[in-house]
Design a protein that fits this description.
Layout (H helix, E strand, L loop, with lengths): L2 H32 L4 H10 L3 H12 L4 H11 L2 H8 L9 H9 L3 H13 L4 H28 L4 H17 L5 H19 L6 H30 L1
Helix pairs in contact: 1-3, 1-8, 1-9, 2-8, 3-4, 6-8, 10-11
Length: 236
């Protein structure tokens, strides 16, 4: 297939991500404008930093008068999940040029990870296609942030509305999941983990801790159910 065909395939896979990034990128840009960031600064942050959760955290923590060191540490901790995403794609990058593999790993996000993982499992997918999915998604995110900065600079929008954008995305992702015991356990455990962190005054790592607790609880529930089924079949 020609390179044009690769780009067309990647764009088709990236469209849902791009549309979703408009919904959360504009509020993120509005928040960035509220702390005095201009278009150039937001573009640089979206291109060089490129972390949805992190870019939401920075203005929120700044408005809460958090120390710079606390902001850096919290955002860095939340973004450690990106290393896991990149590591999981290492077998897919075997034999590809190092520059291509590096750029692909550096632009993986939660959403593009899910899309590219599904495409790789279906077969017929490649790292160059996956990279274009990442780049199309990043372009949408950057453009949406710029629109948000321009809107935030021109119109007085309540920051509470913009701050809720990321929360609303997580709610949408939750309600669209298949209802299983494992998913229910993961959701409840994750919420409990986040609540515990918030109650302890640890807002920075709350999302990461909640995610880890949720995954661990779901794995534990899955293991218990498998063991119960084996025990039941063994006694039947």
């Amino acid at each position: 297939m020609s390179s044009r065909g690769y780009i067309r395939d990647a764009f088709g896979a990236a469209v849902p991500i791009m549309l979703g990034y408009v919904a959360i990128g504009v509020p993120c840009g509005i928040l960035c404008a509220s702390i005095g960031l201009d278009v150039v600064q937001v573009v640089m942050m979206s291109v060089l930093f490129y972390s949805g959760a992190g870019q939401f955290m920075i203005p929120n923590m700044w408005l809460a008068a958090s120390p710079v060191a606390s902001i850096v540490a919290s955002v860095s901790l939340v973004n450690t999940r990106q290393m896991l995403y990149a590591a999981s794609f290492a077998p897919r990058c075997a034999g590809v040029p190092k520059r291509l593999a590096f750029l692909f790993a550096a632009t993986v996000t939660d959403e593009s990870y899910g899309v590219n993982t599904a495409r790789f499992e279906q077969g017929g997918w490649s790292v160059d296609r996956a990279l274009f999915v990442n780049l199309f998604s990043q372009a949408s995110w950057t453009a949406s942030n710029v629109v948000g900065v321009l809107v935030g600079s021109a119109v007085d929008i309540p920051l509470a509305i913009a701050s809720f954008a990321m929360t609303s995305i997580f709610i949408c992702l939750l309600v669209t999941q298949k209802l299983t015991v494992e998913n229910a356990v993961a959701a409840m455990a994750a919420m409990a983990g986040v609540f515990a962190c918030k109650a302890a005054g640890l807002s920075g790592p709350a999302i990461l801790v909640g995610a880890v607790v949720g995954v661990a609880a779901a794995l534990g529930a899955s293991a218990l159910r498998r063991r119960a089924r084996k025990t039941g079949s063994g006694t039947a």
